[in-house]
């Protein structure tokens, strides 16, 4: 399975998966419940994103993640601005950005096997109502890495486009990105099927 994990031995890397996930989920919940004003949301976002200041990750990594998500944030903001207005669009985009960036931090600092074990243990009580804990855990881990993975594919397409000396036209880039995204989904489906997940 494609993983975003980057090995390390400091900061978030040293923290067990359970407490780390709980802290990051609480931060996402906190930014979602911040009063609906732009200064409060931005202040909450800055507080939450100081998680990247911990040794072993750093502001440079935060910058890389924000840059990778730039088009997602632009589209999110534009869509909300058209239908909801400027202030709700800023608030919504800030909340989306914080949630995705904290999820990326979890994926960057936690091995996939540790996340699978954690989610399986957390979902085990749901077996009583017919939930397949293993499949649900796998679904959560795959979902956690989807946005950063697509952002990386978009960056690869852009870099290849520039290396060929192509202009700034967006049509060929979009087409190539869609093809790569579908191929990634197909490969992921084949990998899951080979492991008995249907």
For this entry, give a set of tags.
single chain; 198 residues; mainly alpha; globular
What do these coordinates show?
- The protein has 198 residues and is an all-alpha fold.
- It is built from eight helices and no strands.
- It has one domain (11-194).
Give the helix proportion (percent range). Answer: over 70%
Q: Give the termini distance in whole angstroms.
A: 15 Å
Helical stretch tally: 8
Large-scale geometry: globular
> Tally of extended strands?
0
Order of helices and strands: HHHHHHHH
**What is the CA-atom radius of gyration, in angstroms?**
18 Å
Strand-helix topology:
Elements: H1 17-33, H2 38-49, H3 59-68, H4 70-84, H5 86-109, H6 112-123, H7 133-163, H8 171-194
Helix pairs in contact: 1-2, 1-5, 2-5, 4-5, 5-7, 6-7, 7-8
Summarize the structure.
The protein is an all-alpha fold. Helix content is 73%, strand content 0%. The protein has 8 helices and no strands.
């Amino acid at each position: 399975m494609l993983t975003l994990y980057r090995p390390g031995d400091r900061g978030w890397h040293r923290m067990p998966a359970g407490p780390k996930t709980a802290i990051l989920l609480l931060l996402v919940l906190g930014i979602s419940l911040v009063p609906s004003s732009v200064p409060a949301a931005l202040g909450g976002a800055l507080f939450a994103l100081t998680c990247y200041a911990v040794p072993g990750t750093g502001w440079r990594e935060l910058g890389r993640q924000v840059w990778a998500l730039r088009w997602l944030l632009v589209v999110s903001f534009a869509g909300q601005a058209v239908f909801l207005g400027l202030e709700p669009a800023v608030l919504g985009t800030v909340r989306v950005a914080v949630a995705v960036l904290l999820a990326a931090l979890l994926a960057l600092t936690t091995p996939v096997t540790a996340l699978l074990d954690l989610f399986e243990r957390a979902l085990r009580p749901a077996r009583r109502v017919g939930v397949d804990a293993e499949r649900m855990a796998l679904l959560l881990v795959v979902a956690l890495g989807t946005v950063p993975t697509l952002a990386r594919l978009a960056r690869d397409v852009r870099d290849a486009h520039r290396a060929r000396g192509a202009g700034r036209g967006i049509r060929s880039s979009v087409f190539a990105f869609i093809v790569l995204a579908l191929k990634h989904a197909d490969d992921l489906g084949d990998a899951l099927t080979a492991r008995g997940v249907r």
